[in-house]
Amino acid sequence: MKAAVFHGPRDIRFEEVPRPELNEGEALMRIKACGICGSDLHTYREGLFLQLGLPIEQGRILGHEFSGEIVEIRGEMPSVKVGGRYTTVSMGGNAEFLRITPQIASRMIPIPDDISFEEAATNEPLATSLHAVNLADPQDDQVLVIMGAGIIGLGILQCIKARCKARTIVVDLSARRLALAEQLGADFTINASQEDAVARLKAMHGAAELSLLESAESNIDTVFDCAGATAHFKGTTVLEQAIGLVRQNGKVIVVAVFERKIELDVNVLVRKGIQLVGSWAWTPADFVQAMALISTRQIDRKPLITHRFALEDASQAYETQIQANEAVKVVLTP
User: Fold this and answer.
1) Which of 3, 5, 250, 319 has the most CB atoms less than 10 A away?
2) Across residues 204-228, what is the average pLDDT?
3) Averaged pLDDT score across all residues of the chain
4) CA-CA distance, 36 to 65, in Å (whole number)?
5) How far does CA 117 lie from the centroid of its chain?
6) Do 111 and 19 belong to one domain?
7) What one-character DSSP code corresponds to residue 82?
8) What is the pLDDT of residue 279?
9) Shared-domain flag, residues 194 and 138
10) 182 & 268 share domain
């Protein structure tokens, strides 16, 4: 079969690899759509998080947010059927076919007939966004700031809008992504490439520079860090900014993955009584709920799919996904 094989940083090749062989009680999925995730980019750019790729003899096959059709079952697998359309999560989605074990099948969700394979492939990142929003527990009268308008940040915006009437402010460097945030219902957007986002937020909602004796003056209830820090980033991180911006006893939800260690002024965290919450991936319930939001059209994922590439153009697809000014979600269609 054909696959996009990762050999090292900035080195993905379209190659022929062995087609998966099934054991008893396993199925074969023909991949129809596979998104390129932010964690895939960490691997592609820096060679980080290699465990998220499926190891094969000549390298690794990335891709874990995908959808497809079952084309073969060996033995008994009651939870799936040949010809069935499903989305699930595993490694190795940048290929024509994927072996579905019982463990992978346990996370399988049928795709309604009126939902495309591309839309279904965005279910996993939506579940990640939903998990962060569930941790934040937003209320109608709150002010929420989303720092970073990639697929996760925009998904957080979509989940908030589907859940409550909280005021949402989205910050990013990309005019295209911010325009999409406005299309999806953001109440206000800030382009951090054109103005000081922290200064604007302080002017709008207040935030005092603290000593151990000062109190915070802010009505920002929660800040979502969907940016993190790349390996070569220099300057004040979004996480530091978030801790400075959020109100006394507010929440900072960290959804991003960091490529390097950072330093924080923990005294500010302690003095303000901030709830600093890490949000990793999703729960099985989040995964199911995300598909329900898509299938009932409470959330429309189509606007977030900005680029489509054939599998043989995977290298170009990854280079495109890196371009934050141009791309939100790049999807491979094997």
Assistant:
1) 3
2) 79
3) 94
4) 8
5) 17
6) yes
7) T
8) 98
9) yes
10) yes
Query: Which residue range forms the structural domain that includes residue 319?
Result: 2-122+301-333
Write out the H or E segment, with its range, that includes residue 315.
Answer: helix 314-322
CA distance 208 to 142: 19
- Positive/negative CA dihedral, 264, 265, 269, 272: negative
Do 173 and 239 share a domain, yes or no?
yes
Tokens of 264: 């924080």
Query: Which of 78 and 127 is assigned the larger pLDDT?
Result: 127
Please tell me the pTM assigned to this model: 0.95
> Do 258 and 305 belong together in one domain?
no
SS (H, E, C) 111-172: CCCCCCHHHHHCHHHHHHHHHHHHHHCCCCCCEEEEECCCHHHHHHHHHHHHHCCCEEEEEE
Which amino acid, 42?
H
Q: Is residue 285 part of a domain?
A: no
101 in the same domain as 12: yes
Residue-wise pLDDT for 314-329, tens only, equals 999 999 999 988 899 9
